[in-house]
Structures are given as C-alpha cells and as structure tokens.
Amino acid sequence: MTTVLLLAHPDFAASRANRALLAGLTDVPELEVAELYALYPDGKIDAAVERARLLRAGRLVLQFPLQWYATPPLLKYWQDAVLTPLFYLEPDVAASTAGLPVLAATTTGGPPASYQQGGMRIDELFAPLKATARKCSWLWQAPFAVHDVRNLDDAALSRAGAAYQSVVLAAPMLG
Ligand SMILES: Cc1cc2nc3c(=O)[nH]c(=O)nc-3n(C[C@H](O)[C@H](O)[C@H](O)COP(=O)(O)O)c2cc1C
User: Fold this and answer.
1) Per-residue model confidence as pLDDT tens digits over 83-115
2) Where do the domains of the chain lie?
3) Quick one: which atom of ligand 1 is closest to the CA of 107?
4) Are strands 57-65 and 139-140 parallel, antiparallel or unpaired?
5) Would strands 57-65 and 101-107 be described as parallel, antiparallel, or unpaired?
6) What is the residue-wise DSSP string for the chain?
7) Hey, which of 64, 67, 68, 124 would you mutate to test ligand 1's pocket, going by the most ligand atoms within 8 Å of its Cβ?
8) Burial (CB count <10 Å: 0-12, 13-18, 19+), residue 173
9) Is the CB of residue 66 less than 8 Å from the CB of residue 111?
10) If you measure from the C-alpha of residue 67 to the centroid of ligand 1, how many angstroms do you get, rounded to a whole number?
C-alpha cells in the first residue's frame, strides 16, 4: 500500500533538514510525496485531488519544519480543505480511512532542551494534530523530531534521514 507523505515546507528550495529527511526515504515502497507548497503556490488546495490522495494512503506522513510551534499554514489549510468536506459531508467514505496510521515528522531550530523540561514537548505541541487523528479514527504514531538542525552537519542530517526511514517503515499500514 501507498505511503502518502505530505511535505509542507514554505521554502523547500532553501531547506537542508527536511531535504535530508526526505532523501533518507530511499527504501520506502510505494512512497508518494506531495509537496504542498510546490503543488499549490497560490495556497488554493485542490480538495478533490487531495481527497483522492488521502483515500489511497495506507499510512500518512505529515512532514514539516516547526514554525511558531505549529505546522506551516498550508498543512493546517489541508485539514480545513480536505478533511472538513470528507468527514462532514461524506462520512461513509471517510470511514474507509479508519485506522490509518499517521506520523507527524518535524525539524526544529531549537535544541532538544527547548522541548524537554521547562519547554513543551513535541507531542504536547502536536495536540491539535493528535486530536484531529482521533476525530478521524486514525492511528496516531509517536512524532518524529530532529532538533537544532542549524547546528547539524551533513553527516548528522544524513543519519537523521536514516533514522526517519526506520520510523516510517516501523509505522503500520492500514488493513
Ligand atoms: C517562520 C519561522 C518560524 C519558526 N518557528 C520555530 C519554532 O517555533 N521553534 C523552533 O524550534 N524553530 C522554529 N523555526 C526554525 C525552523 O524550524 C527551522 O529553520 C527548520 O526546521 C529548518 O528546516 P529546513 O532546513 O528544512 O528549512 C522557525 C523558522 C521560521 C522561518
């Protein structure tokens, strides 16, 4: 089954960390990457195209750089544009995605300590995504995060990419 990866990076051309993560996914079979900002530079998501993409997902990966402790806006808009009509107007179709494993993967400029004691943990910051997964009857996976990315050299980013692939492959498939 297809692993659908929604990449939401507002400036992917300038990306080091998210580019390295994506480059690590060499052995994920049937990987379908949708680079949302490239597909929809005007910010207008084609809900029918993205609905069909979601419906063929056996697992869903949401990858993005953390921006103001949240997803970049186009990924939030994807929820509004795709999930709202699917789950409220077509509940029978939406039900076919029940059990879909969903993995959120992020990169942060802040060091690990910012997301441990004294800071909010990544899984706490992702509470809205987790609530969305729960609402959709999806199978929320422990998030994957790479911190302090500006201070990681190419070798460290490459190792992060390999670790990312292991986490993606370990996530179950629907069905
Ligand atoms: C608008 C904006 C907001 C950001 N907010 C955060 C933040 O809340 N926490 C954090 O740790 N890093 C933050 N960063 C740093 C990014 O997470 C970091 O630049 C990104 O993960 C690098 O990934 P890339 O090499 O793929 O671009 C922010 C960066 C930008 C441009």
Assistant:
1) 999 999 999 999 999 999 999 999 999 999 999
2) 2-170
3) 21
4) unpaired
5) parallel
6) -EEEEEE--TTGGG-SHHHHHHHT-TT-TTEEEEEHHHH-TTS---HHHHHHHHHTEEEEEEEEE-BTTB--HHHHHHIIIIIHHHHHH-HHHHGGGTT-EEEEEEE-SS-GGGGSTTS--HHHHTHHHHHHHHHTT-EEPPPEEE--GGG--HHHHHHHHHHHHHHHHHS----
7) 67
8) middle
9) no
10) 5
Taking domain 2-170, whether its CATH number is 2.60.40.1930 is answered by no
Task: Answer yes or no: is the C-beta of 7 below 6 A from any ligand 1 atom.
Answer: no
User: What pTM does this model have?
Assistant: 0.98
